[in-house]
């Protein structure tokens, strides 16, 4: 396959996070997440993305034909996008799979990547269609030690009902569908945004 014929569309979600939609499958083994360069060993695509100069890549999530990159750098996605696109094409054209298969987890154990995959699917299929009716969106940021970290955006940010939505709606759904999740952490800055509900306390 000619790597230049592979289409890649960048969809920035915010300053730190950008989703790259690739015209061919990148990884068919479910979902893989890399949160540090040493985790990328053996996966040429992840190794190349962590090595991009100045990008300060913090996390890479690969599933199907999607590659999500999280960075700490202030460089805009327009600048980094070309390098990320080149790294994706090069890895897909290489002699070994761009992303190595996930190591087997012992029976009965559920790792954070598996939870991330299940929670992500629940958010896409049920949670976001529900909150979209109110102009909101819930972003899955991470799963660490079975705790789901999320951020509310759009109409949910700073909304007085955000806590109710979080506690009753999302926690209830997670408890039923992904019972291995131990908790939820809302990292939204509810004082930011156009019309924050939680005003900063006056000293």
Question: What would you note in describing this structure?
Answer:
It is globular, with a radius of gyration of 18 Å. A hairpin with a 2-residue loop joins β6 and β7. The C terminus is likely disordered. A five-stranded antiparallel sheet has the order 1-2-5-4-3. Strands 6-7-8 form a three-stranded mixed sheet, covered by helices on one side. The longest helix has 21 residues. Helices cover 30% and strands 27% of the residues. It has four helices and eight strands; from the N terminus they run βββαββααββαβ. It has 203 residues and is of the alpha+beta class. It folds into two domains: 91 residues, Ribosomal Protein S8, Chain: A, domain 1, CATH 3.30.1370; 75 residues, GMP Synthetase, Chain A, domain 3 (2-Layer Sandwich), CATH 3.30.300.130.
